[in-house]
Specification:
heterotetramer; A alpha+beta (about 180); B alpha+beta (about 160); C alpha+beta (about 775); D alpha+beta (about 290); A: about 180 residues; alpha+beta; Ubiquitin-like (UB roll); DNA polymerase, domain 1; five-stranded mixed beta sheet; 7 helices; about 40% helix; globular; D: about 290 residues; Uridine Diphospho-n-acetylenolpyruvylglucosamine Reductase, domain 2; Uridine Diphospho-n-acetylenolpyruvylglucosamine Reductase, domain 3; Enolase-like, domain 1; five-stranded antiparallel beta sheet; 14 strands
Chain lengths: ~180, ~160, ~775, ~290
Amino acid sequence: MSVQAGHVVSLTVNGSPATRTVEPRLLLSDFLRHELGLTGTHVGCEHGVCGACTVLLDGEAVRSCLLFAVQADGHAVETVEGLAAGGELHPIQAAFHETHALQCGFCTPGFLMTLVPYLREHPTPTEQEIREALSGNLCRCTGYKNIVDAVALAARRGAAAGRQGAEAAPARRAGSGAARRGAA
Amino acid sequence: MIVQGEYTFPGTREAIWELLLDPAVIARTMPGTEEMVRVAPDRYEGRMRVGVGAITAAEFTVSVQLADVVPPERYTMQIDGRGRFGFTRGTAQVRLAADGAGTVMRFEADLQVGGKIAAVGQRLLDSVSKLMTRQGLESLSKEVNRRLASADPGSRSPNPGSLP
Amino acid sequence: MSARWLGERVPRLEDTKLLTGRALFTDDVDLPGMLHAAFLRSDDAHGVLRSVDVEAARRRPGVVAVWTAADLGEYWKPGPALVPPPPIAGLVFNSATQVPLAREKVRHVGEPLALVVAVSRYVAEDALDDIVVDVEPLLAVTDLEAALAPGAPRVHEALGGNVAARARQSKGDYAAARGRAHKVIARRFRYDRGAAAAIENRGVVAAWDAKTEELTVWDTTQAPIPIRNGLAAMLGLGESQVRVVAPFIGGGFGPKIMMFYPEEVLIPWAAMRLGRPVKWIEDRQENFYATTQERLQIHDAELAVAKDGTILGVKDRFLFDTGAYDPYGLTIPINSQCTLLGPYAVPNYDSEFTAVFTNRPIVTPVRGAGRQHGVFVMERLLDLAAKELGMDRVEIRRRNFLPPDAFPHDHQILFQDFAPLTYDSGDYGPAMDRAVDAIGYERFLREEQPALRRAGRHVGLGIVSYIEGTGIGPYEGARVTIEPSGSVRVATGVGTQGQGHFTTFAQLVSDVLGMDPSKVQVITGDTREFGWGTGTFASRGAVVAGNAVHEAAIRVRKKVLKLASEVLGVDAGELFLECGSVHVKGAPERSLRLGDLARKANPLRGGVAPGTEPGLEATAYFGPERGNAANGVHAMIVEVDPETCEVRIRRYVVVHDCGTVINPTVVEGQVQGGVAMGIGNAFYEQLVWDENGQLMNASFMDYLLPTALDVPAVEMRHTVTPSPLNPLGAKGVGEAGAIPAAAAFAQAVEDALEGEIEVLEIPLSPNRLFDLLGSRSRP
Amino acid sequence: MKPPVFDYFRPASVDEALALLAEHGADAKALAGGQSLVPAMNFRLAQPAALVDLNGLDELAGIGDGPAALRLGAMTRHCAVERSAVVAKRAPLLTETMPYVAHPQIRNRGTVGGSLAHADPAAELPAVMVASSARFLLRSRSGERWIDAERFFTGLFATALEPGELVTAVEVPTLAPRTGWAFEEMSRRHGDYALVGVACLVTLDAAGRCAAARIALLSVGEGPVLAPSATAALAGVQPTADALRAAAEAVNADIDPPSDIHASAAFRRRLATVLTRRALTRAVERIATSAS
């Protein structure tokens, strides 16, 4: 079907369903920010380099400025607003706070959303591995050191609490399913 | 951006000269040219569409002003192309020299590129200009051979034209 | 007053909002009926603007308005000259300030030509493609030396040439010193342009309320109060009718204090004209042209030294690229001129700069603001001198440090704040000792480097000193209020862009009023909350605003003690503040909650003594007589692969002295972040302009910000020599990390390549190293 | 930086996708991972009238282990290739290369087929496929055909794809015995466009002489560039350090690198020889270690 304007998008965002009618060209980043009012996802370059707009699509970290909202139809999106369940900071958020891993805080949501799935899949990363995992997110304030420290701290605690599994949201399982389908 | 080269055509200088300034030939041989009209003895105007890969072939309006014309030896072109993605402008000098049965064309263009093309496309400028130059020369050489063939069905050119 | 919180590593109070996506940034502002703006920008760097045809754009569905310069009428005015020239004898200054929309002429790529307002940014950008511009190209002015040649094309016809300014400052007699010199080291140094590249681009949202006749503007500015004052004047409104809010700002680094950007002038005007809120959010591509930049300078400098390495004098002649306009005056080149002297005794100095108009975007301070140029030139000259004299690099620096008893030290030239360049305090030897110790200087040169070289590795060390003039005036202010709830509100005029002011200011108040910082709510950057001040720049927030906050808290404390002594019937001297209450010494059970005291201070009935001010509230201002001098030493170890010309930074040590430290975690964060920017400037970041004034890398694909893989963890040490110029003894720190990084990097790379090359320009790149090494690095 | 208007189609099958592409002709573009196309659209440099979204087509995704070759569906994401144990076993050169492809977030969306069809001269996968003697399955409404990677890439962002034709699968042949592999790349920052990259396979005979070699480079021409001169220099020789150095130098005859602001043609030539030497050296070392 050709759909210039008025394309219906139904998806779940942070676990709750949302349906909107949008132009095909509407970027997912703008959809989340301006259609759904989830302004925690930030836009820094709109060409896929800075990583500030990183969100989870079916559990995988993606650049929301390089996806059209219509592509998220039928999928699950998670944003920074979904991290602090019941007002309690997610372990990665808490670690960022404790290690002073943010200054202006503009790039921070993108870092957090990159790290949530990363730490699930790599519970005990080395410093070099952490830096590689962060290489797709630009920060202009911190010089990265404290962000690397935050990831290491969260990993230590996660390993201690053995809570990687506990964090797996239903959307995540869908995502890893998609990845496994690829590997099957 | 400097684009320069040398190309040897079969045929006399006069023949090549006539060919190079024929708007129909320019339209056929300049990559992406959709239309080229000789609006004055020393001025051409037309439209080109140039794109590469995922980059949409954007329309450029092009004007070419001839200067310093010394047939059949040399001429200078003032090139001005503008489009949605930016502009290309500059001068190109063309010199023809007899070389046995053939003619050597030496050209040097000093081109400015501006707007989005320059701002975002710098990584590809060199490759694209090389590509367009090569394509232009190859189709020009085809054109030369076609003309020679039609002019004198008896003789096929021994030298189909060669890049140095 | 206990100093329980001053100097503590208090976790930041602003973090939670930022970590959970609840912090309000300018682009998050969403108002009913809001329209969206986009600007058409010039593709040409220099040309005669023949026409801008917007008819098709106006006809496009969804477009509400399109304006060109011609449509602005009386409102079209060049911007204000922000910083007047300092009183330097013989100074030349030609002012040419930016315009809202180009008229008659375009002077740099990206200069705005038309403003489109539409129902969405998408439609507004569609309309930009409908606009037809006719520009007759002119030769672009891009080369600083060619620009000064007779007959060169002019950026501004009205001016005699392309000279924006020329200023000479000198002391002593350099020529005589040169005559006495054992060696004279002379070189040409070049330091090229980069972008501040805050991850948040700029943005302005404006709303006019016709009923209350109030204009509200959300602006990504570092200086909300001057913006309010300027807008009120431009729009013919009273200052109280204009509210400027600088909400959370996604990084500033200098360019967000340029005043006024065309967008800041036009978006509020458009909102009033249309009677609807209008939002403009700069995109990344625009940011590369529309936001100001630094920092091309070319220095021809020479150093006259005695046989023992003593500096006899320095001569410097330099060119400074100010871009197409010069609203910011001479701040940057004067910083360069002053900072070059560093921590050294320089008896004879002769420095003259020429600021040059070019067809490139406007240059205004970016983190460091010209200081790095001075440091680069001086430190490179000292390295070259040490080599010529066969001296140790550290030794030649130690030999020339100002001694601890030299303070205050007057350099006999003027600084950017127009006050004499006078160092307030400092002790440079110990800072160098700590750096030498931390990097393992001796061991590296004697053992590690030779061993690695034998193994075919190319490792090198760089170690440099610097001074940063910080904390300049004129002033900042703050109001501290104890609320009946018992919580404390602090309002100040400075904007904040991630420096942790919400926490450090709370710490200052907590000590004075005896309460937990978490009970202190800091409000910055909202002109309705506090209407006096200048802004956040020149590493001055903590120094100038911090001292104002501190003084205001002290005044509130006095009110607390006075009222409490009346209520409790004891002498004020018998009282102490703790845990949000006033207690009586020896009888702590006799206490009053500050909140209750605040209520008593605002009675609903009955009379009060004449002269009584209601409430527990005080406002204070602080203005230093002049800036203070933070200092430090950076040392790094690099490894170079001469085949691929890649450079890896193995270690990075910073010894830093910013006087009294309010929050070490915040200070270290500022330094680490500054170092990252300095490394970017040294090896990754360069705005590449062709000879026609076209920017060849206007995207994050080609403009290379360092990533987590490129920036090392900085090992930090502090020394503390408090400033006598303010009660807290604080000095600035915001820009420190960025300033000496390039000089240290250049020295380290030279050392790694065993002196095969001289690094006289920044930024370096693998390709540049390849060119410098030439045939000396066959694979 | 907002994309221009376009029509959006989400076909339910490959046949429907092919029909849509045929119907809309040159104005339509297939949307795979979109990690190169969408940025170009945000810059408004790419302005396709219609996008045919292939992301719903599971029949195009998947990694299959065949007797003679590894098979990758065109819509297999980079991250799936990167994580796949099968790929690591059957096409280790590919596994070694994946981390060089942009950044994790990009690899979570980017697809094998999309990267090959885009044919960026600086992209890693085209060069690796050429070095691996892979072949691609192309499908249009008029049927299917196989084409060798080497013949698929025809120039600057140019491929043998006909209008209305899609890459649907890739086959990477199993490595011969005594074959070593290596990928080397230099970029300004990890994940940036390569200044130069080299992918190579080296096979030694029982006597330890070089029996076969495939060397393909990226960012040194209009597309992935095979290095026949370098390969010839290796034929039948013992892979000594000198022999590998000579072969690496020979690469210069095979490339015509472009200049850009990050690397001049001369610097790229330098990098090509250095990285080729390093890649060949590691490939040969691998054979030694796997043999022992």
